[in-house]
Amino acid sequence: MSVAAQGVGAEKARFDPARALKEAGLAAFVAFMLFLPMMGFRLVGAEGRLGLEYRPQWVVIGVVTVFFGHLLVSFLRAMRGAPVRPAGRVGPVARYVNTHAKWFALAGIALAFALPFTPFANRYVVDVATTVLIYVMLGWGLNIVVGLAGLLDLGYVAFYAVGAYSYALFAQWFGLGFWEALPIAGVLAATFGILLGFPVLRLRGDYLAIVTLGFGEIIRIILLNWYPVTRGPDGLSGIPRPTFFGLVFTRRPAEGEVAFHQFFEISYSGLHRVIFLYYLILLLALLTNWFVLRIRRLPVGRAWEALREDEIASKALGINPTNTKLTAFALGAMFGGFAGSFFATRQGFISPESFTFIESATILAIVVLGGMGSQIGVVLAAAVIVILPELGREFEQFRMLLFGAAMVGIMVWRPRGLLASREPTIRLHARSAGERSP
Amino acid sequence: MTAPLLEVEHLTMRFGGLTAVDDLSFVAHDRRITAIIGPNGAGKTTVFNCLTGFYRPTVGQLTFHGHHGPVLLERLDGYLIPRQGIARTFQNIRLFAQMSVLENLVVAQHNELMRASGYTVYGLLGLRRYREAEAEAVDRARHWLDRVGLLSRADWEAGNLPYGDQRRLEIARAMCTRPRLLCLDEPAAGLNPRETAELGELLLGIREQEKIGILLIEHDMSMVMGISDHVIVIDYGRKIADGPPAAVRNDPNVIKAYLGETEEEELPEEVKADLEARGEGGG
User: Fold this and answer.
1) Which residue in A14, A70, B50, B71 is a FRET match for A392, CA 20 to 30 A apart?
2) ipTM of the complex
3) What is the pLDDT at residue A267?
4) Which CATH entry fits the domain spanning A92-413: 1.10.3470, 3.40.1350, 1.10.287, 2.60.120?
5) Residue A434: closest CA among chain B residues belongs to which residue?
């Protein structure tokens, strides 16, 4: 099949000046329509009033660039003779990374553990790395639901919120610490996962996405309006910080508490807590990863994948679709809950604003960009999604535009995600070169 | 005669005003290959879907003598039926395309492995009990891969297999559930004559060695007549003939409804005479 697709593509790639001109003209026209309002006018404040500045030269430059750029691209494409890789083929890089996943993973873990002690590490770097790891953990958790079980979940942030609020509330009411509250938050989030799972068991694809989207919004709106419990938009503050085996991270510990710097007899530094939080999320994320990799090789993990591939065939083999889907929802939600608890203890303050739809979309984007089901892909995608807007800070309001363009680019060049390649969970023969290509 | 394995009594299936299966009764025996044949749209696949729990019959009783004694299939949820010992394949192959060939066969042993993995708990802990059960499952998969000639392709993505291999893999997958009755929905569809002959051999081998019953829906007459012990012919949802292949082959009703479409020289002399007496009844 791929041979045929290449044949068609190669024929198409022969350079045809008339056609290239036509396409470039079309692209230039679209660019003109876009650039006219975006670049052609500019609001300027003069003498206390707003006025328009007209900049036709900008539009002309833009349109001409697009026209000749498009011509150049079609020419280069024809020269190379190779069309865009047909969707569904796995790139050599992805295959290489996935067959050597162990080494990449070990190197990545070593790097992650060493990060706070590298020379370029400062508070900002460790903070960003912590955020990346939160998204990595969320991505790995959502990967259970979306990547393995194939259930498109647009409301994953709901479980993140349940985890965060359950820790905050349990701390407030019962004085529970982070470590006691963590399992409770996980169990509560899993319960919510099952609650969501029941009504959507029969739904697939688009329909499922809509219902889960609604579920995410319901949770957020409840948090926003149930003032006596959640304090609504004011949020919950004063959430206790985690302790390191009972040691707190404050300069002057309260009566009966021992501070980390006192115990180890080092001078106090605000960085200690930041680094501790970093290691905490690193461990939580690694736990998630270990769990997902392990469960993929268990019957339930294989049943998830089988259900994703063909629900009818799975039923004909005696797999109970209800239970299997519910476990996927519950376990995915549980890791969302863990991450939520961590988020609450890291921020010290939570409000419904942190749990909007854009968060769900970001987490889903990480899973999809990374390549469904690929654990290393999620790390890569989370790094891209968190770090790219950070790098773009100098561009101010254009950074989200850059971010969007990067996402479009990834989907154009790597339609199945950065590292989409599936390794079987069990093998009969040792791996040999090219055995899986027909 | 061997013991009855499946007794279908007065099976009727209506979809709105359409009666797809109308008062159909038949018996499939243990260690026998029973074939259901009939023209397109006769209701063959509907019968299968009733047996395997995808449809709930409008009327009728389906008694299956399975692993745990006799059960009424129409009262079971679809996913519970395989656990009684019925396995099926599909007319349009339904493999887990992105999973490997071996994984397809291991998934088929889901329920046993699930128990052995302590519903995931032992499995997560990596206990020996689960690892042994998995090794056993792989051994069974290896056995069936060998039987269908796919051993060397065990680690291929199932969706990348050639068509004929996919058909045989689906049968292997069904056999990995250790059924007492194997239901095959047009297993020879799209196979070339050589592959069809091999398939016939495979099915006869399964009947002999596994000592199970096979229920077959088929269009390919040569294979049905060659390997079946018992043939049931249905047309417009009704049974029009029931008996050994030789008897069914000569049944005038069958010829009229079904074999009348094939070339005349294949028909026995007496049938031709019969047809002529009826005045081109087949056309």
Assistant:
1) A70
2) 0.83
3) 74
4) 1.10.3470
5) B156
